From TrEMBL:
This is Transcriptional regulator, LacI family. One of its GO terms (molecular function) is transcription cis-regulatory region binding. Coiled coil: none annotated. It comes from the Bacteria. InterPro entries: HTH_LacI, LacI/GalR-like_sensor, Lambda_DNA-bd_dom_sf, Peripla_BP_I. PANTHER family: LACI-RELATED TRANSCRIPTIONAL REPRESSOR, TRANSCRIPTIONAL REGULATORY PROTEIN. The keyword Iron does not apply. Keywords: DNA-binding, Transcription, Transcription regulation. It comes from Cellulomonas flavigena (strain ATCC 482 / DSM 20109 / BCRC 11376 / JCM 18109 / NBRC 3775 / NCIMB 8073 / NRS 134).
Length: 348
């Protein structure tokens, strides 16, 4: 049986007795053609069952039904949950999600946001490497929600990894550690600055010496330098910016014959896939990343469609009741320390 061909714009134009360009204007910019002609073209299109292309629908409605998720590194497993969370919420509301990888570059990120204007209805900006002013300017032309960032006037979702770092430090102090290193992340990372700002007063309160090492790229290959620096600094424990960096630290310590946790305790951050599979299993900070993605999508949908109220209590799919903020105030999601085999008592 022959499959019926989908009618085209050329078919509509022929049936309405107008040029293809006139039919296109009638369907996308009806104010630019005679009202009677526009009505005739629309009626013919409906009769034929013509479905305009996505670009034509965007011209007609001013909307693309597309949202961008902008990430600093799509290969980092930390962001996998974010992709799932935003994608699921957006699909439920009829949106398509596209990914943009900015390769840990503020310059690429800024250029990406410029090019996204007019191509998407909005964007979720995760772990941005841009300055506050750059994000604020971008938000003037594109509906934005930020993850792991606070920007006045821009809604966002914040994972309390700074609080998780303090939990890790308290755990190490309980194990008898008095000299602890923090292997810092990129200088452009807002989260890294926030963690250091939380760790320094916590160390003073707990009576532990904090040694800041780095900065390091948040990748496995940077772990060797971080491990070497920690050993040179004479610390008994190291807290890494993320799990990928911690994996590299574990590898380097093993290569140098340093036992973990006997010779050096190691803590990661993110609890990505594999954190419990490395040996020893990694003590790390668990973040509700997928939940953060869903909440970020909720906030963006509120801006785009008014789907959900900006304020008041809301319960997500995991049954956690959180406060949807007034515009500009972030949703704060808690983190927790998961203790595994990579941390133990300080060896004096």
């Amino acid at each position: 049986m022959a499959v019926r061909r989908q009618p085209t714009l050329r078919d509509v134009a022929a049936a309405a007795g107008v040029a293809v360009s006139t039919a296109s204007r009638a369907l996308t910019r009806p104010g630019r053609v005679n009202a009677g002609t526009a009505d005739r073209v629309v009626a013919v299109a409906k009769e034929l069952g013509y479905i305009p292309s996505a670009s034509a629908r965007a011209l007609l409605s001013g909307r693309t039904a597309t949202v961008a998720l902008v990430l600093p590194d799509v290969t980092n497993p930390f962001f996998f949950g974010l992709v799932r969370g935003t994608g699921a919420r957006l699909r439920e509301s009829g949106y398509v999600q596209v990914l943009a990888d900015t390769e840990e570059s503020a310059e690429v990120e800024l250029d990406t946001l410029r090019k996204l204007r007019g191509q998407v209805d909005g964007a979720v900006l995760a772990a941005s490497r841009l300055t506050d002013d750059q994000i604020a300017v971008a938000a003037e032309d594109l509906a934005l929600v930020v993850v792991n960032r606070t920007i006045p006037g821009t809604p966002g979702v914040l994972l309390d990894t700074a609080g998780g770092m303090v939990q890790a430090l308290e755990h190490l102090v309980e194990q008898g550690h008095t000299r602890v290193a923090y292997a810092a992340g990129p200088t452009t990372s807002w989260s890294d600055r926030r963690r250091r700002e939380a760790l320094e007063p916590a160390a003073a309160r707990l009576g532990v010496e904090l040694v800041v090492l780095g900065p390091y790229a948040p990748v496995r290959t940077s772990g060797a330098d971080a491990a070497d620096a920690a050993l040179d600094a004479g610390v008994t424990a190291i807290v890494a910016f993320n799990d990928l960096l911690a994996f590299g630290i574990l590898e380097r310590l093993d290569a140098r014959g340093v036992a973990v946790p006997e010779g050096l305790s190691v803590v990661g951050c993110d609890d990505i896939f594999g954190s419990d599979l490395v040996r020893p299993a990694l003590t790390t900070i668990e973040s509700p990343v997928e939940r953060a993605g869903r909440m970020a999508a909720d906030l963006l949908l509120t801006r785009l469609d008014g789907e959900r109220p900006a304020g008041g209590d809301d319960e997500d799919d995991d049954g956690l009741v959180v406060d949807l903020p007034v515009p500009g105030a972030p949703v704060l999601l808690p983190t927790r320390l998961i203790v595994r085999g990579s941390t133990g008592s300080a060896q004096v």
